[in-house]
């Protein structure tokens, strides 16, 4: 949950940034058109669409922040927007800070760029005395303590790690606007994997709310709930907010929750789409477990039929090889989000192909990955421009150790270092105690070192099989399981060296490893989960542990949950600028049974694999915008742009015509009619539908281009090699104003060209 202490400011909720009114800054960069310099045609279309509703569908690495900040700056500098009437909202304080910085550089000081919670909190503080009266309730910065108290009042014994899961469930319920009484039914309907009995969670949720209210506290979800409620109940206050804010921009719109959308609706008011610009990418929706949903982004055009929709697909981050793999991943996706996927078009020079590597076991995978990283650093790649990304935080330890062994500094993002995790520290205390005791009833019956470690950890709930579901309980189990695996590997190594092994030796090894990994790492390789990597990028990315059961994670049961796991891998792939390595291990430990399989998401994309449904592997990721290098010698295709306005085209029909549907046509109407008559005759002769010969869109493209030779005809989308041989001479004759010679072509093979 976001921490908004820096936004607990007094005074009006409409105050701008502290530098908002720095004199002379607005005019420093020249006229408004200077803001448009350097933008590509699609970014310029965003920047000049000053009146909403506007929906920007922005793929990874396409410059969405650049587009929307230039839009705001262009509106301010052209006089259409007053800075103090603009509110831009996003999801993290870091992103909001970056947006404020860019706006200042563009001469748009005074615009508020905040998180949803920060903007709502300022309004709540300002309007509470007038709407409710009395002091504003005190904000709970951490609700875990109160959740623990509520669980105790319900007579439930809850471990510390389970409290995180309970807290997350309460947060999910609140952002989806689900009350305690409705929580069990909502969990069942959503297919959500509840960490414990939903009835128990509902009971804790109810007591938590009652206790919080009685003590005059609010939590972060209440900030949104209460602000929305005040605006709903007090039209005068709502009118004041809407009079102040005339122009709204929402970044990462695919991540909004029902509660955030409710607040946004109150900010914009009835018909408020006229002042709204949203930007997002449904293919990067990876936080549904927190209540985020892409439905509002996907349904924006339905709610606002008059909306301007701009697609950003020019990828300035990644090489064509990385982009091709990313497109291939989404080409196999299913569901509503997949229908709206964007096919990226790399704007960078070609780079190395992604590397796919299969290892015998996890330690070998980690050690080899660490050596490859060391080689990259030696070759001049900065350590801070390299990342190792994994599905769960429990996978980090083996990579922490492998990098430490080679003296490669690293930094762990989004999680505590392995040896600093509470469950690992607690386990260390227990193991040290058992080692000092020597003979211990807990460990005496164990056959080996790993058995002793399992026995000790069992006193804290460790089980041979993982718990069901996700969350903190599963994370805790993964950490303890890693300690057991370390014991197995440690004993195996000592035995091979002819050394005896005891629990005391193992504890000494743990202490040595912990000490080695406590060294500060300022310029270090990033270790992060795929979720924590969202919004970041590196020159080199290693995606590791890509096996079935890990990605997709074993508890992804429904089709939508599996598709979200695919999107998670997509996010990981699109973090890489140039170097991308994907790897998996066939077994967990050396000498173990090689029973694992690489993730299904790479089927048809990695060498030697076939696509799902037995589709040829080379078809994966094929599209009119960016085909990628599917085989040796095949060139990377560039973007298909409108011949009139130069906008990148993503619609299939528009790509065939090489112009926007709304741009003026240069089609030779008479030629088009002759082509249609000829096609009808061909279809009758073959006893096949007309589209089997050529679709209407292909005929329109021919009538617009009027090709003069086979090469020009072959360049038209929908005219493949087979169609060129079969119909090329006849079509070129028609284009030259002549009648085709000879009889109709041989009977068609029945394969239509690309659908219109």
UniProtKB/TrEMBL annotation:
<dbReference type="GO" id="GO:0004386">
    <property type="term" value="F:helicase activity"/>
</dbReference>
<dbReference type="Pfam" id="PF00580">
    <property type="entry name" value="UvrD-helicase"/>
</dbReference>
<keyword id="KW-0067">ATP-binding</keyword>
<dbReference type="InterPro" id="IPR027417">
    <property type="entry name" value="P-loop_NTPase"/>
</dbReference>
<feature type="binding site">
    <location>
        <begin position="58"/>
        <end position="65"/>
    </location>
    <ligand>
        <name>ATP</name>
    </ligand>
</feature>
<keyword id="KW-0413">Isomerase</keyword>
<feature type="compositionally biased region" description="Low complexity">
    <location>
        <begin position="606"/>
        <end position="619"/>
    </location>
</feature>
<dbReference type="Pfam" id="PF13361">
    <property type="entry name" value="UvrD_C"/>
</dbReference>
<feature type="region of interest" description="Disordered">
    <location>
        <begin position="588"/>
        <end position="633"/>
    </location>
</feature>
<feature type="region of interest" description="Disordered">
    <location>
        <begin position="737"/>
        <end position="756"/>
    </location>
</feature>
<protein>
    <recommendedName>
        <fullName>DNA 3'-5' helicase</fullName>
        <ecNumber>5.6.2.4</ecNumber>
    </recommendedName>
</protein>
<dbReference type="InterPro" id="IPR014016">
    <property type="entry name" value="UvrD-like_ATP-bd"/>
</dbReference>
<dbReference type="InterPro" id="IPR044876">
    <property type="entry name" value="HRDC_dom_sf"/>
</dbReference>
<dbReference type="InterPro" id="IPR014017">
    <property type="entry name" value="DNA_helicase_UvrD-like_C"/>
</dbReference>
<dbReference type="InterPro" id="IPR013986">
    <property type="entry name" value="DExx_box_DNA_helicase_dom_sf"/>
</dbReference>
<keyword id="KW-0347">Helicase</keyword>
<dbReference type="InterPro" id="IPR002121">
    <property type="entry name" value="HRDC_dom"/>
</dbReference>
<feature type="domain" description="UvrD-like helicase C-terminal">
    <location>
        <begin position="320"/>
        <end position="578"/>
    </location>
</feature>
<feature type="domain" description="UvrD-like helicase ATP-binding">
    <location>
        <begin position="37"/>
        <end position="319"/>
    </location>
</feature>
<dbReference type="Pfam" id="PF00570">
    <property type="entry name" value="HRDC"/>
</dbReference>
<feature type="compositionally biased region" description="Acidic residues">
    <location>
        <begin position="738"/>
        <end position="756"/>
    </location>
</feature>
<feature type="region of interest" description="Disordered">
    <location>
        <begin position="1"/>
        <end position="34"/>
    </location>
</feature>
<dbReference type="InterPro" id="IPR010997">
    <property type="entry name" value="HRDC-like_sf"/>
</dbReference>
<keyword id="KW-0547">Nucleotide-binding</keyword>
<dbReference type="InterPro" id="IPR000212">
    <property type="entry name" value="DNA_helicase_UvrD/REP"/>
</dbReference>
<keyword id="KW-0378">Hydrolase</keyword>
<comment type="similarity">
    <text>Belongs to the helicase family. UvrD subfamily.</text>
</comment>
<feature type="domain" description="HRDC">
    <location>
        <begin position="665"/>
        <end position="745"/>
    </location>
</feature>
């Amino acid at each position: 949950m976001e921490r908004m202490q820096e936004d607990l400011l007094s005074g009006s909720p409409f105050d701008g940034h502290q530098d908002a009114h720095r004199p002379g800054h607005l005019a420093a960069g020249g006229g408004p058109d200077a803001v448009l310099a350097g933008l590509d045609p699609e970014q310029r279309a965003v920047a000049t669409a000053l009146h909403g509703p506007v929906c920007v569908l922005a793929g990874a690495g396409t410059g969405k922040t650049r587009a929307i900040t230039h839009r705001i700056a262009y509106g301010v500098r052209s006089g259409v927007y007053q800075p103090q009437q603009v509110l831009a909202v996003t999801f993290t304080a870091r992103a909001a800070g970056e947006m404020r910085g860019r706006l200042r550089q563009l001469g748009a000081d005074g615009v508020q760029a905040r998180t949803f919670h920060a903007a709502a909190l300022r309004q709540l503080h300002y309007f509470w005395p007038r709407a409710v009266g009395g002091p504003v309730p005190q904000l709970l910065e951490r609700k875990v303590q109160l959740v623990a108290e509520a669980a105790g009042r319900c007579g439930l014994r809850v471990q510390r790690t389970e409290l995180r899961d309970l807290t997350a469930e309460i947060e999910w319920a609140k952002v989806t606007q689900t009350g305690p009484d409705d929580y069990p039914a909502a969990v069942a309907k959503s297919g959500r994997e509840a960490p414990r009995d939903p009835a128990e969670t509902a009971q804790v949720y109810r007591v938590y709310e009652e206790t919080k209210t009685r003590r005059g506290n609010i939590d972060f979800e209440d900030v949104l709930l209460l602000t929305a409620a005040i605006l709903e109940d007090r039209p005068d206050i709502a009118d004041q907010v809407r009079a102040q804010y005339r122009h709204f921009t929402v970044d990462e719109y695919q991540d909004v929750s029902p509660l955030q959308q409710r607040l946004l609706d109150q900010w914009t008011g009835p018909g408020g789409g006229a002042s709204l610009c949203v930007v997002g990418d449904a293919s990067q929706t990876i936080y549904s477990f927190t209540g985020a949903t892409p439905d509002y982004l996907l349904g924006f055009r339905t709610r606002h039929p008059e909306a301007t929709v701009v697609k950003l697909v020019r990828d300035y981050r990644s090489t064509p090889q990385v982009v091709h793999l990313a497109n291939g991943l989404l080409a196999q996706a299913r569901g509503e989000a997949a229908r709206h996927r964007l096919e990226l078009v790399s704007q960078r020079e070609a780079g190395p192909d992604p590397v796919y590597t299969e290892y015998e076991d996890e330690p070998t995978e980690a050690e080899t990955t660490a050596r490859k990283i060391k080689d990259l650093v030696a070759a001049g790649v900065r350590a801070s421009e390299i990342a190792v990304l994994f599905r769960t935080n429990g996978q980090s330890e083996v990579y922490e150790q492998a990098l430490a062994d080679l003296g490669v500094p690293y930094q762990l993002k989004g999680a505590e270092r392995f040896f600093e995790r509470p469950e690992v520290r607690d386990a260390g205390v227990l193991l040290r105690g058992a080692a000092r005791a020597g003979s211990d009833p807990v460990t005496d019956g164990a056959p080996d070192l790993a058995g002793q470690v399992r026995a000790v950890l069992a006193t804290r709930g460790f089980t041979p099989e993982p718990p069901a579901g996700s969350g903190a309980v599963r994370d805790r189990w993964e950490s303890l399981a890693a300690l057991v695996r370390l014991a197995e590997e440690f004993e195996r190594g000592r035995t091979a060296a002819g050394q005896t092994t005891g629990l005391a030796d193992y504890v000494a090894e743990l202490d040595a490893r912990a000490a080695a990994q406590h060294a500060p790492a300022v310029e270090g390789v990033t270790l992060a989960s795929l979720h924590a990597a969202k919004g970041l990028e590196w020159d080199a990315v290693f995606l590791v542990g890509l096996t079935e059961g890990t990605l997709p994670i074993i508890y992804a049961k429904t089709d939508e949950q599996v598709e979200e796991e695919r999107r998670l891998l997509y996010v990981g792939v699109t973090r890489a600028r140039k170097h991308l390595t994907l790897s998996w291990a066939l077994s967990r430990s050396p000498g173990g049974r090689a029973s694992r399989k690489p993730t299904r998401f790479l089927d048809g994309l990695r060498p030697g694999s076939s696509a799902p449904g037995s589709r040829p592997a080379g078809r994966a990721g094929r599209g009119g915008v960016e085909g990628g290098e599917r085989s040796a010698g095949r060139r990377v295709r560039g973007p298909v742009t409108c011949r009139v306005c130069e906008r990148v085209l993503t619609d299939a029909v528009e790509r065939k015509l090489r112009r926007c549907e709304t741009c003026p046509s240069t089609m030779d109407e008479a030629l088009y009619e002759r082509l249609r008559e000829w096609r009808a005759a061909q279809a009758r002769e073959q006893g096949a539908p007309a589209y089997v010969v050529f679709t209407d869109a292909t005929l329109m493209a021919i009538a617009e281009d009027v090709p003069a030779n086979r090469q020009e005809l072959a360049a038209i989308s929908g005219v493949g090699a087979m169609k060129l041989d079969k119909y090329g001479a006849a079509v070129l004759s028609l284009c030259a104003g002549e009648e085709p010679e000879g009889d109709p072509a041989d009977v068609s093979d029945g394969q239509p060209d690309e659908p219109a």
